[in-house]
Write a structure and sequence with these properties.
With about 120 residues, the chain is of the alpha/beta class. The chain has a single domain, classed as Ribosomal Protein L15, Chain: K, domain 2. The protein contains 5 helices and 5 strands. Strands 1, 2, 3, 4 and 5 form a 5-stranded parallel β-sheet that branches. Strand 1, helix 3 and strand 2 form a beta-alpha-beta unit. Helix 1 packs antiparallel against helix 2. The longest helix is centred in the first third of the chain and has 17 residues.
Amino acid sequence: MPVAGLERKTNPQLVELILELRQVAASQQSDLWSDIADRLEKPNRLWAQVNLDRLGVALQQNEIALVPGKVLSTGTPTRGIKVAAVNFSENARAKIQQVGGQCLTLRELAKMAPKGKGVRIVA
């Protein structure tokens, strides 16, 4: 059964992720996950690319960054941060983990925070 907007996606894991996020959005009545699913349905070239230096500035204490795209390695986090993204560059992942941070998948974050509480979109 084709879903509007997903017929042009060729990555079956991405299609599955988008459908899962839509299910979480509907079951939890969460606009956050619906918004992220909408962003991921757009062409990859329109997805966010966020550098580490921007994450440290954008987050408050105890917030989790949600990047609907890729985390890049420019900059160095000054504290352990939790970041969920579609993808991480190898250097960005290493830098986050070096300072005690955590790199999450969107699925993991959706299970941890199904209502989106404590999550900030950084795009």
